[in-house]
Design a protein that fits this description.
This protein is mainly alpha-helical and 112 residues long. The chain starts with a helix and ends with a helix. The model has no long low-confidence stretch (mean pLDDT 85).
Length: 112
Amino acid sequence: MFTWYVGLLALSGLAMIIMANIDNGRSQLSRGLNAVFGIAFLGYAGYLWFVFEGGDYLIFFHAFILPVLLVIDFVRSRNWQALTTKPTPTQQAFRAYWKEQDRLEKRSARRV
């Protein structure tokens, strides 16, 4: 259980740091919070893994709600249109051709 907890803390921290480094139109505050919490999660995971010598430790499962909320914020603010590529002239011509074919087919179907 301890190893899983430390691993999830480290994974969450890394994910938050990576999201903080991607400029996708989010505010500086949002990106800064991602970075700060990511460093905190990663730091606590490092402390538990390398420095902690046993004994009692607290498991905050509700702390994993924060990374989920930050991922949701990241995905919602992502400019997905910028990730899509514009069609090439050949693709545009192909689409125009089939659009015209569909229009002619519908036109001829109305006459019958």
